[in-house]
């Protein structure tokens, strides 16, 4: 019997941000943590590297990312930097009844629209990446346990 493939879509700002390398490191750390739990991580900047593929159209990017959200079982979204695309991905997850975990630095103001989205199952506030990963690991473990029992997962770790 083939094991079910679980996928997490890693969402977060990438366009026109000052700390691009820093947030890409965060997205990759989230991806590695997911992979360590047996969850395939789809990380857009690695899958669709615009430096290597500068000719990808806006439409292709939109279609591809939305398809990946649709295929996912979970969205993990960094919301510490406002991003229209991240908001769209969170809403797409909600439309498809896909749960979302959101992460941001302590003290950041996160949109009430994001925090109030019914699909947001967990919110993590962190001081540094290590703390973010520790808290996310707890949430992922709990989500994986409850996922098989079809229970609601509602977590808030601060």
Task: Summarize the structure in words.
It is a single chain. With 158 residues, the protein is of the alpha/beta class. The chain has a single domain, classed as Rossmann fold. The chain has 6 helices and 6 strands; from the N terminus they run E-H-E-H-H-E-H-E-H-E-H-E. The chain has helices spanning 20-36, 44-47, 58-71, 84-95, 112-116, 129-147, and strands spanning 6-12, 39-42, 74-78, 99-105, 120-126, 155-157. Helix 6 (129-147) links the parallel strand 5 (120-126) and strand 6 (155-157). The protein is globular. The termini are far apart. The mean pLDDT is 89.
Task: Offer a quick outline of the entry.
By secondary structure, this protein is an alpha/beta fold. The chain is 45% helix and 21% strand. It is globular, with a radius of gyration of 15 Å.
Physical arrangement of strands within the biggest beta sheet: 2-1-3-4-5-6
CATH class, named Alpha Beta
Q: What percent of the residues sit in helical stretches (DSSP H or I)?
A: 40-55%
Largest sheet: 6 strands, parallel
In CATH terms, what is the architecture?
3-Layer(aba) Sandwich
Radius of gyration: 15 Å
The CATH topology is given as: Rossmann fold
β-strand percent reads 15-25%
In total, the number of strands is 6
Mean pLDDT score, rounded? 89
Please, how many domains?
A: 1
Distance between the termini: 39 Å
- Overall, the morphology is globular
| SS content category | alpha/beta
Low-confidence stretches: none
Individual helix count: 6
